[in-house]
Specification:
This protein has about 260 residues and is α+β, with helices and mostly antiparallel strands. The protein is built from six helices and twelve strands. It is globular and about 55 Å long.
């Protein structure tokens, strides 16, 4: 029973990574290295913003997450992603319903390594074969393994307004996000969720703020994600085999 309780706590914590889902923003100086010429914004705000989302999703990056989950708690996380290598690594400190949970995760290809107190032994990583799991969404991750869910943003966009050069606001249909939908996010309120975002002159999304309204018994929440170090070399490697154990069956069962 202890293993099942630990697995349940782990799952709740990981799903919260979506934002119910500090490093300074160095995107301007790093963007200058990746692209010498500024990107000209398209006349249509939605087209311009979606193009920036696509470009950002294709680049290596670092990210931070700062989420205020209302009465449920809060989350602070940081990490890096390399889409071409299908690799993501991050650390998260989550406070949920008065309980603190620290999560370290490394995803490389179909291998997920987790370090979560109560689930893994001591300082060891728990390995999961993601080919045995139906969807990363139950772990609070998009298809690329990014906990910011930037990979699903294009599909969620409902309306976009350009408020200033490189600044956008609009609404998202969060029911189109597998993480939110998988958590029972079918409320009409989730079909028009306000957001603000900034895009640097090189065409990368540098910040995304999502204001999720109260849904059911869940409180309103605000999730702020920041992105930087675009197209820079990033090394995300598997843990040493001596530090790895296989994930317990309870964790696999909870993800099916």
């Amino acid at each position: 029973m202890r293993g099942k309780r630990a697995a349940a706590v782990c799952l709740v914590a990981l799903v919260a990574l979506s934002g119910c889902t500090d490093k300074s923003d160095k995107s301007a100086e790093n963007g200058a290295v990746a692209s010498a010429a500024p990107t000209v914004e398209a006349s249509d705000p939605a087209t311009a913003f979606k193009a920036a989302v696509t470009k950002t999703n294709q680049a290596t990056m670092t990210f931070t997450i700062d989420a205020d989950l209302g009465t449920l708690g809060s989350q602070k996380a940081s990490g890096a992603a390399d889409p071409k290598a299908k690799a993501t690594g991050y650390h998260s400190d989550l406070t949920l319903s008065g309980r603190s949970v620290t999560i370290d995760a490394i995803l490389v290809g179909s291998d997920l390594y987790l370090k979560v107190p109560g689930v893994t032994s001591g300082d060891r990583w728990a390995h999961m074969d993601m080919t045995k799991v139906k969807s990363l969404s139950k772990l609070g991750l998009d298809a690329s393994g990014n906990p910011t869910n930037l990979g699903t943003l294009d599909a969620e966009v409902v309306a976009v307004t350009r408020t200033a050069p490189g600044a956008y606001s609009g609404t998202l249909d969060r029911t189109k996000n597998p993480v939110v939908a998988g958590a029972g996010g079918v409320s009409e309120a989730l079909k028009s969720v306000p957001f603000e975002a900034t895009v640097n002159p090189q065409g990368y999304v540098t910040s995304l703020v999502i204001h999720t309204p109260p849904v059911g018994s869940g409180p309103a929440s605000t999730s702020t994600s920041k992105f930087a170090d675009f197209a820079q070399p990033i090394a995300i490697e598997r843990p040493d085999s001596a530090e790895v154990q296989q994930a317990p069956d309870e964790l696999y069962q909870a993800l099916q």
